[in-house]
Specification:
mainly alpha, 1% strand, two-stranded antiparallel sheet, globular, 19 helices
């Protein structure tokens, strides 16, 4: 099997789904293509991890590709279940399913690309597919959110393009020009001798540019709007996949620039941006009254934590990888359960959703566990990764432990307050005529509970092969 199949299958799915007029049939076909993508991602485990042409496979992108295949499949199942509640017309339904597969293919391409230019194109394509899905409801708020998404991420991708060009210029005298100047493998071989000033300039632009896509401060404000106004399933893939692809691009640039002893240390810049994102998001969580916006701010918090860990480097880089995996699992589970609660209650304001553990016990407890996991409580994987981050911070840079601990505490307390609002206390009334899930209640609950079970397993014990894979990925990420 060639890794390119993981990209080509969803692109083929996008073409096929764009031609299927009946939404229930398209939803099942979407599940089928996503299941095929997950099987292809699993097949990557049998392939040699080496650079080959424009695509490459190594320990850093392999776990993210496996995660992408899983989240793509479970989100497709959840999407099919909640399709009646979205109220799409025939044209919007075709556009939605085609854009969903286009997003998955572009996301896989961004993770597999060895060429930085191809990676840039793939992340931009994933962004455009996301913008289309956010705008599909065509309400004034949805159009505004999609426009904001497009404009801010357009600025970010422009900055990332400039950083890519500068990095290629720094390597050009050593690689001989051409495609080699954009190859991650070739850049890694010559980075030590490249111009330090150009390397520093390139990384700053790449960090801010792709940091926009990853939801990092300062160009982060598109994320809450996109989560709040797009289809419910899109919140899961935005938080679970797009943010990871953008952070992966930053890690590739960091690994190259860190080889050169001359530039400003890239880790220091990531630590600063990560802490700023964590602290801003932690305090912003206390002022949100819209549930989907609130948990979008939680995604900003967690991407800030991951950036902080990768900035520290060393053993903390493994914590960053574990955090990326755990966040994708628990946050997508949270949005699955929350999406069903919003349909049942007829609104996404916190005041409209309450007492779920009384009115819908299985759904309520699933959402409660997802919020507890997102807050970083044991025994879920986010607790393990945050504990390792704090331990590394105290051991290596003790003065950073105070802002890190403050951000973690403030964010956790805000999420626990939200847990009380949503799941306990008096139950709010259900909306009259709320449509049942198209495939049954299991299609909402099973994906969420599977993700929580995997996050629990990662928090309790890492299997030896996975621990070895993450250790190798941490070495690559620096």
């Amino acid at each position: 099997m060639h890794p390119a199949l993981l990209v080509l299958l969803p692109f083929l799915g996008a073409v096929v789904l764009a031609a299927i007029p009946r939404q229930p049939v398209a939803a099942l076909a979407n599940i089928g293509f996503s299941a095929g993508g997950f099987l292809l991602a699993l097949a990557l485990l049998a392939l040699p991890r080496e650079v080959e042409g424009l695509l490459h496979l190594d320990a850093l992108n392999l776990p993210l590709l496996l995660l992408s295949g899983l989240v793509g499949l479970t989100t497709a199942v959840f999407s099919a279940a909640t399709l009646p509640a979205e109220g799409f017309g025939p044209r919007a339904g075709r556009a939605y399913h085609a854009a969903f597969q286009l997003f998955l293919g572009a996301n896989h391409l961004a993770l597999l690309a060895d060429n930085l230019g191809l990676m840039w194109v793939a992340i931009e394509l994933a962004t455009l597919a996301s913008v289309l899905m956010v705008a599909l409801h065509r309400t004034p708020a949805a159009i505004e959110a999609a426009w904001k998404f497009l404009m801010l991420c357009g600025v970010g991708i422009g900055l990332a393009l400039f950083g890519t060009i500068v990095l290629a210029l720094a390597a050009q005298p050593l690689t001989g020009g051409g495609a080699a100047s954009l190859s991650i493998a070739a850049l890694g071989r010559v980075a030590r001798e490249a111009d330090p000033a150009l390397m520093t300039l390139a990384f700053v632009f790449l960090l801010v540019g792709y940091g926009t896509k990853a939801g990092l401060v300062p160009l982060h404000s598109w994320l809450p709007d996109a989560h709040a106004e797009g289809p419910m399933a899109i919140s899961a893939v935005l938080s679970g996949l797009l943010l990871n692809a953008a952070l992966h691009a930053i890690l590739r640039a960091k690994a190259i620039v860190a080889l050169n002893p001359g530039p400003l240390p890239p880790g220091a810049l990531m630590v600063a941006m990560g802490l700023a994102s964590l602290l801003l998001a932690a305090f912003a969580l206390w002022r949100r009254r819209d549930a989907r916006r609130l948990f979008a701010w939680s995604s900003i918090e967690h991407m800030g934590l991951a950036a902080f860990a990768f900035g520290l480097g060393g053993p903390a880089a493994m914590a960053g990888l574990l955090h990326m995996l755990g966040h994708s699992l628990v946050k997508s589970a949270l949005f699955f359960a929350l999406g069903r609660a919003i349909v049942l209650k007829g609104g996404q304001r916190l005041a409209a959703i309450g007492g779920l553990n009384l009115s819908h016990p299985v759904l309520g407890w699933t959402l409660a566990l997802a919020i507890l996991a997102t807050a970083g409580l044991p025994p879920f994987s986010l607790f393990a990764s945050e504990f390792l981050m704090a331990q590394q911070s105290v051991a290596r840079l003790p003065w950073l432990a105070l802002p890190l601990g403050l951000g973690l505490l403030v964010a956790a307390l805000a999420l626990l307050r939200t847990l009380q609002d949503l799941c306990f206390g008096p139950a709010t009334a259900d909306a009259p005529g709320a449509p049942p899930p198209a495939l049954g209640e299991w299609a909402v609950l099973a994906p969420a509970q599977l993700h929580l079970l995997l996050a629990l397993a990662l928090g309790m014990a890492l299997p030896a092969p996975l621990a070895a894979l993450l250790a190798e990925a941490a070495r690559i990420a620096g």
